[in-house]
Amino acid sequence: MIEDQVIQFSDFKEFSHDIIRDDNVYLGISELSLATGVPQNQLRYWNERGYIHSVADMKLKFCFNTILLVRGIKLFQKRGFTLSAAVKKASVYTDMTAKIKKMLSTRITTITNNDDTTEIDLGVFDPQPDKRLVVKIKDDSTLFELK
């Protein structure tokens, strides 16, 4: 294995954190509309009614994660849910996404690229502390392995 193919997650975490930090990536309403396919007037209505929230002290500027919420609302409305119900369901999904992000940021120790396979070491496997849980990603398949 070539040394530069092993990525210490602390480096990757810092890299990704700086690129997509929730507190420094803001979208105007036109960018949010383009990113989600929801018309600006509808986004303004949702913001006025409290379904989505613009950043305090920044009129009609939205944090990056609002894209997920708006896309979720749009998805559930297409499935026939009322706006209020769609917001509730989309909020559950965005909360889950935040928890997955937290799990990944606390568990990943290294990421290794080997030819056509990427291995993500999730650290110690809690029920068996002498083992590590590794995710192997190759093409369209994802497998878990204890090492």
Automatic annotation (TrEMBL):
Gene3D superfamilies listed in its UniProt record: 1.10.1660.10
GO term, biological process aspect, one: regulation of DNA-templated transcription
Pfam families, alphabetized: MerR_1
Protein name (record): HTH merR-type domain-containing protein
Every HTH merR-type domain range: 29-88
GO molecular function, one term: DNA binding
Stretch forming the signal peptide: none
Native organism: Liquorilactobacillus oeni DSM 19972
